[in-house]
Amino acid sequence: MRRTVAGTVAAALVSICVCGAAMAETVLTVSGWTPPRHHFTRLLQEEWAEMVERESGGLLKIRYLPKAPMGAAQTFDGVRDGLVDISFISHGNNSGRFRLTKIAEFPFLADKAETLSVAYQRVFERSLASAKEHEGVVPLAMFTPGPGHLMSPKKAYEDKASLLGQKLRAPGGMAFDLATALGAAPVSRPASELYELLNGGIVDGAFMPADVFGGWRLEDMIKHVVSAPGGFYNASFALVMNEAKYNALTEEERAALARVTGEAFSRIAGRASDDADAKGWQVYAEKGGEVHQASDTFVEELRASIAPLENDWASSVADTGIDAAAALAGLRAEIERVEAGQ
């Protein structure tokens, strides 16, 4: 009889422990607006989800939604309003909302997304976060895809004159401003529409990173890619979280989340983009596409065009209290440190 009672008590205790563990588990809903096979989708769904669960000891789990409840341009508001707990945003898709984040979009910054992403996160924490541009959500990490290139189906753009009047797809942000400064006519449309835009003659070329090859059939359309050191432009992204959900986490859960966000997330997101770029270049090469390096003359024309944009940007954010020129110089210095392995 004693054994039976003891066994019953032991079973009850195990049951209580199991139920308690189940109750303690916090599920975070995550979504993204990239296609299912895109490297950002797979990063959040697989590698990062595993990191979150492992670092939290099972306290946190990711539930990735197969279909996002909002589009790219609506993601910030969707996270703020609690449609999902966590997602990522492209700052360029939110016209007028973000100004300081253009710091990571300038040309000639870095050839690797991992390098720029890590440097950007460090500068954001040190110099930009205090401006609270992401008010309404919690910014968990800054990151960038690979550098942008100048792509076209018919001819290589060899200098500023060749761009005059050309209709170029630009993702918004600094790429849009640069296209305008170069005399082109920028068209801000999603990358997923580029094949149809080119095929229908709506645009003549595009600013895009190499990761687009192999996902949107663009390797069948693009015949010329012009590259510049550090990119013609870069794009700014952020992993963001619903504020109420973040505040509801326990201290232990927040500490675990901190270990897989910030610079840790910036590094793996950048690395995923670099891997995707490498695969994209391979697909493009197999299709016989040509890659051209921007001439020294073209690079100097680009530098001359971007200098006023840097000054305009610094003036436009003066009211934030951030020394924009110092922050940009700090980003370039941080990039050098990351490249040196620091």
Keywords for this structure?
15% strand, alpha/beta, single chain, 342 residues, 3-stranded antiparallel sheet, disordered N terminus, 6-stranded mixed sheet
Structural class: alpha/beta
N-to-C CA distance: 67 Å
The coarse silhouette is globular
Please give the CATH architecture of the domain at 149-233 and 277-339.
Answer: 3-Layer(aba) Sandwich
| CATH topology grouping of the domain at 149-233 and 277-339 | D-Maltodextrin-Binding Protein, domain 2
Spell out the blueprint of helices and strands:
Layout: H1 2-24, E1 26-30, H2 39-55, E2 60-64, H3 75-80, E3 86-90, H4 113-128, E4 137-143, E5 149-152, E6 167-169, H5 173-181, E7 185-187, H6 194-199, E8 205-208, E9 224-227, E10 237-242, H7 243-248, H8 251-259, H9 263-286, E11 290-293, H10 296-316, H11 324-339
Parallel strand pairs: 1-2, 6-7, 6-8, 9-11
Antiparallel strand pairs: 3-10, 4-10, 5-8, 5-9
Helix pairs in contact: 2-9, 4-9, 4-11
Q: What report would you give on this structure?
A:
The protein has 342 residues and is α/β, with parallel strands linked by helices. It has a domain at 149-233 and 277-339: D-Maltodextrin-Binding Protein, domain 2 (3-Layer(aba) Sandwich). The chain contains eleven helices and eleven strands. The chain has helices at residues 2-24, 39-55, 75-80, 113-128, 173-181, 194-199, 243-248, 251-259, 263-286, 296-316, 324-339, and strands at 26-30, 60-64, 86-90, 137-143, 149-152, 167-169, 185-187, 205-208, 224-227, 237-242, 290-293. The protein has a six-stranded mixed sheet, covered by helices on one side. It has a three-stranded antiparallel sheet with strand order 3-10-4. Helix 2 packs antiparallel against helix 9 (263-286) and helix 4 packs across helix 11 (324-339). The relative contact order is 0.17. Mean pLDDT is 91; it is low at 1-23.
